[in-house]
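B., you asked whether I could sanity-check this one before it goes into the benchmark set. Here's the sequence:
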Amino acid sequence: MKFPYGLTDFREIATGGYFYCDRTDRIPFLEEAKSQLFIRPRRFGKSLLLSMLEHYYDVARKEEFQEIFGGLAIGKNPTEHRNCFFVLRWDFSCVDASGSSNEIRQSLYNHINARIERLVSRYRSAGYPVEGVRLDRDDALASVESLLSATSAMGYPVYLLIDEYDNFANTIMMQGGNSRERYEELVHDQGILKTLFKAVKSATSSTGFDRVFITGVSPVVLSDITSGYNIAENIYFSRMVNDLCGFREKEVRQALEGLCRVCGHGPEMLDEGLLLARTYYDGYRFCRGKAENVYNPTLCLYFFKQIQEECEFPFEMLDANLAVDETKLEYVAQLPQGAETILTLSERGRDVAVESISKRFGLREMLFEDSKDRSFLLSYLYYFGVLTLSGMDEMGRFLLRVPNLVMQ
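And here's what the prediction gave me:
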């Protein structure tokens, strides 16, 4: 067995004999809206999801469809949109969040220009020459317009994928000092984030971006830019995608059964492995109502790989690279009611009640929250994976709890 720990290239995983939990059957659901926002905690497989979409829709990979998707659910019943787009992918985790607002703007422009340049080069090599694209180093939005003019002339729509759309904005919020002022500069009327998403919104209403799929950790940024981008359908509470980026217990069991066979271990080892995985990595639920809890996929892959190498359970159940981001907890502790909330949550098994999980909230609400049930703060912790849905109380409020021992 091969476990793709640290791999996010879908083609490599699908064709390389790696362990993969097929979620391609959700593609038809993801086609129901032209612009979607999908939120999950960090290290939860969002980049692999985008890679899967990229390979499925990319016109230059048409001849590879059977090789990549033939053995998967979508390969048996593909949609009409498969392999018919130019795909442009931005990854905002690559944007440098240090420096002034102007320096952040230039870092963002550099990233967008580099991705456009990569697109032109790749499609030219694949026999789809995109001619006449002019890169403007000082204004990447002009570069985007130039690209869309060129692709429109060729008759190919563009599918825009944005990974970690809120990464550098969240980083700025937690840097201390004048971070709040710097963040506000990014999202006000002339701020680069609001300007960028206004441009994307405008392009979706013409012959530019036919579809947009955005991933991130929280909806804070889109809330703060309000009308800058108000067309995305928020799908992260949908039962259809509860396990889109997580492992089901059946799948964890199958992996452990295979490892036990390879290592020559009996059912006792399987039961112990399941108990460990359930205690440390399980417990996430992302939709209202009844649904199966899911396991953090990256942590499970770490666990499987460690067992495979040593034929015994790892001494450290958590890779240091995947530890809870202490910076975020330090940030939360400084917010109104933050320290008190963290102390309450530190009591293992303790549920906290909230009237609702806020779908849209901005930095101002978090900084000046005065609600009795701390709805904005608890919602923020939910989006970052510190809390997860555990049920409803007798008053119809949502119950949140720390999902597992790793997060505890």
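One thing to flag: The beta strands are 35-39, 86-91, 158-163, 209-216, 233-234, 352-354, 388-392, 398-401. Otherwise nothing jumped out at me.
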